[in-house]
Amino acid sequence: MQLLDSLREQELKMEIEEVCEAQALPLLSLNHVSLLCRSVLESMQFYEDVLGFVPIKRPSSFKFTGAWFYNYGIGIHLIQNPDIDEFDTYMNESRPINPKDNHISFQCTDVELVKKRLEEKGMRYVTALVEDEGIKVDQVFFHDPDGYMIELCNCENIPIIPISSCTASFKPRSHSFKRSTSNFKCGGFMQNVMMQSLSMDMMNFAF
């Protein structure tokens, strides 16, 4: 009886894995975030001086104004917005900083230092605190020159715990698991999650 149950479990596991593989696209990692901006020069200064991104070469085939940056395993692509429309007018306004707005989030090592640096630069920001089972995450939100939301946090404090068997092959953060992953199981079929970091090939950047 136990052997039969074991065989059934293995068959069901294989069926689930086949479904998951069929649904998932062959992704590796987040490559870059592309942003429209009113002034490429102003945005370049922000992403370089405030966030520490490094300017990199753009393909020579591009015939429009823009700039590429790279750091922390991700690229930022800035594109000059040639049109003056309602979008630009809205972004020019002093928007309230809403943590629930669309945003890009970066992990940081010292939230207090982040707040100090932003204050030194005269930049507005708001803070938030996330708590879960005794774990606390500090968040700092602010805008770039075009009103795009940026978050800096110590989000690595929160462990990544899959809630579906279809996440068995997900690519976790390389160093942020705060709880052991050796016993992770979802639906009785979750295999051990292997820690790995993905390298990004700079030559494969795509607009």
UniProtKB/TrEMBL annotation:
InterPro entries named among the record's database cross-references: Glyas_Bleomycin-R_OHBP_Dase, Glyas_Fos-R_dOase_dom, VOC_core
Pfam families in UniProt: Glyoxalase
Residue intervals of the VOC domain: 29-155
Top-level taxon in the UniProt lineage: Eukaryota
One example GO MF annotation: lactoylglutathione lyase activity
Entry EC no(s): 4.4.1.5
Keyword Lyase recorded: yes
Main EC class the enzyme belongs to: lyase
Gene3D superfamilies, per database record: 2,3-Dihydroxybiphenyl 1,2-Dioxygenase, domain 1
Protein keywords: Lyase
Protein's UniProt name: Lactoylglutathione lyase/glyoxalase I family protein
